[in-house]
Structures are given as C-alpha cells and as structure tokens.
C-alpha cells in the first residue's frame, strides 16, 4: 500500500513539472522535442525548429565521437588495442546510422496517413532523439576510457 502511495505521489510530482523539464543530462524524447517546437507557429516553422534541434544533436554526436577517439589516443594500451577500439567505433557509427534510419522510418510510419509535413515532424524528432542518446553513450565510453587506471 505504501509503495502504491509513493508511486502515486511521485507520478503527481512528475506530472506537475513544467513541460520540457527534464533531469540534467536526460535525453529529450521525440514528444518533448515536438512539444518544444510546437510554439513555432505553422507546420513549416515546427519542422524548421526541429531541423535546428537535429543539427544540434548531430553536433553533439560529432563532439562525442571526437572525444571518444581522443580518449582512444590517450589510452594506455597497445597500439593494436587502440586500433581495434577505433575500428570498432567506426563500425558502430555505421551500424548506428543504419539503425537510426530504420527506427525513424518506423516512427514515421506511426503517423499513418498524415501528410508529408507531419510525417517529416516525426522523422526529425526521432532522428534528433536518437542522436542525443548516441552522444550520451559515446560520452560515457570516452569518460570510462579516460578513467581507466594505467596498466
């Protein structure tokens, strides 16, 4: 009973948060991204806002990838281990891009028979969300590499 009451209270607190409020470092969801841009006005303005967020998310991925490769360069392991790690990071990048395209095609299809602009809204928000998630993953790996004690 107490657990149910605590869960209910926590749910009320979450519901009471202002729209778009998230924990520090939390990745914005597709819905949060769409809602953040919904005040833009027209559908074209909404998509322009989402394209801007997509650009920011892509820069976040690029910065995180750079940080990961820099961490590999500083890694206190053999040159072969460094090359292996970097090669796997490149392969993972390509796999992520393919996954993102397929996942966002699925998210777009959830829009059903909506017209092009609305479907594009879904694709843009999906791509930005997954980019932010990927950036967070890569940043965590880079931190882990830098935190490893020397051999």
TrEMBL record:
The protein, known as: LprI domain-containing protein
Source organism per UniProt: Anopheles melas
Domain Lysozyme inhibitor LprI-like N-terminal, first and last residues per copy: 37-138
Keywords per UniProt: Signal
Superkingdom per UniProt: Eukaryota
Any matching Pfam family: LprI
Segment forming the signal sequence: 1-16
Biological classification of the source: Eukaryota, Metazoa, Ecdysozoa, Arthropoda, Hexapoda
């Amino acid at each position: 009973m107490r657990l149910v009451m605590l869960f209910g209270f926590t749910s009320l607190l979450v519901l009471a948060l202002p729209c778009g409020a998230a924990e520090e470092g939390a990745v914005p969801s597709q819905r949060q991204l769409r809602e953040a841009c919904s005040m833009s006005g027209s559908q074209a303005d909404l998509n322009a806002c989402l394209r801007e967020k997509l650009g920011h998310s892509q820069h976040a991925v690029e910065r995180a990838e750079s940080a990961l490769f820099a961490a590999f360069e500083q890694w206190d392991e053999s040159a072969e281990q460094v090359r292996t790690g970097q090669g796997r990071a490149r392969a993972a990048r390509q796999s992520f891009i393919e996954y993102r395209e397929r996942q966002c095609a699925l998210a777009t299809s959830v829009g059903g028979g909506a017209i092009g602009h609305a479907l594009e809204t879904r694709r843009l928000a999906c791509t930005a969300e997954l980019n932010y998630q990927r950036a967070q993953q890569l940043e965590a790996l880079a931190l882990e590499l830098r935190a490893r004690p020397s051999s």
